[in-house]
Design a protein that fits this description.
44% helix; globular; alpha/beta; 286 residues
């Protein structure tokens, strides 16, 4: 229930109590409840993931990446392996380069790849959806491509990288990952998590690799973009494999993690199934 709904209910009860000549201390209590309700955000997302990062045996670091006159911060996690590894670009949700996203980079590294996540919001992180939407909407398509190009160029030159490049993204970042598939001919795979699918035949014609989609059953807004993408990708002779996970909602890779304060059971099952599939696909990069 939103703050505004609480305010309406409390004011209604206050008027009823006043008409019954209820003692003023009860009315004072109701006024306090109104003030608390006004301060309640409609949507709030608590960040998490530091425990995993602090206890991980894998090496992680922040790096600076030059892109024209701009310096991009990126977070990198390395796998524990004796040979060189593929690298996966990790594109954030709307909330910024959060602790959760960095912990997911550690999970990727645990599965044998170098994970590198560039910061599109210059250090900004959000726990309120409205602020996040405003900030991410200010990032232009040209900026997205510039950041990913610079990060990709940096990533494949990492001495521990074997030259194999893939990209993944979540929420808005999932759509960006699909779109970037047509912008970088070096990509070997695209993993798009609950992001809107590309609907431009010209972009699809340039995609050099398979696109694997991970979608939530209870996410009609995004899922409505899948059928057209399937049609266009098939016409272009490209591989597109969308999977819709039952009982899941948008953002299930985050909300399905058990350490999330707002854990959701249905999303947890979907997350487990998605990870099982993703692990098999990641092995194909070697």
């Amino acid at each position: 229930m939103t703050g505004h709904n609480w305010i309406d209910i409390i004011l209604f009860r206050a008027r009823r109590l006043r008409s019954r000549q209820v003692p003023s201390r009860n009315l004072l209590l109701l006024c306090c409840l109104v003030l608390l309700a006004q301060g309640t955000p409609a949507q709030e997302y608590k960040d998490f993931g530091k425990d995993r990062l602090n206890n991980s045996p894998r090496h992680a670091e922040w790096v600076d990446i030059k892109s024209g006159d701009r310096t991009i911060k990126a977070f990198v996690v390395y796998p524990e392996r004796k040979d060189k590894a593929p690298v996966v670009l990790v594109i954030q949700e709307i909330f910024g380069l959060t602790d959760w996203l960095r912990s997911l980079c550690d999970e990727l590294a645990e599965n044998g790849v170098i994970a590198i996540a560039p910061d599109f919001l210059d250090g900004q992180k959000f726990e309120d959806a409205d602020g996040a939407r405003k900030a991410i909407s200010a990032v232009t398509p040209e900026q997205v491509k510039a950041v990913l190009d610079a990060t990709a160029d940096y990533a494949v030159k990492i001495p521990a990288c074997n030259g194999t490049l893939a990209v993944c993204g979540f929420c808005r970042g999932g759509g960006w990952a699909f779109d970037y598939g047509g912008a970088n001919p070096k990509l070997k795979a695209v993993y798009s998590f609950y992001g809107s699918a590309v609907d431009d035949p010209a972009k699809m014609a340039k995609i050099p690799c398979p696109v694997y989609g991970f979608y939530a059953e209870n996410d009609a807004r995004v899922n409505e973009t899948i059928p057209k993408a399937e049609e266009l990708m098939k016409a272009a002779g490209k591989k597109y494999e969308p999977v819709v996970y039952r009982e899941a909602g948008h953002g299930f890779m985050r909300s399905g993690e058990k350490s999330n304060p707002n854990f959701r059971e249905g999303d947890g099952k979907a997350r487990d199934e998605a990870w099982a599939r993703w692990k098999k696909l990641l092995k194909e990069l070697d």
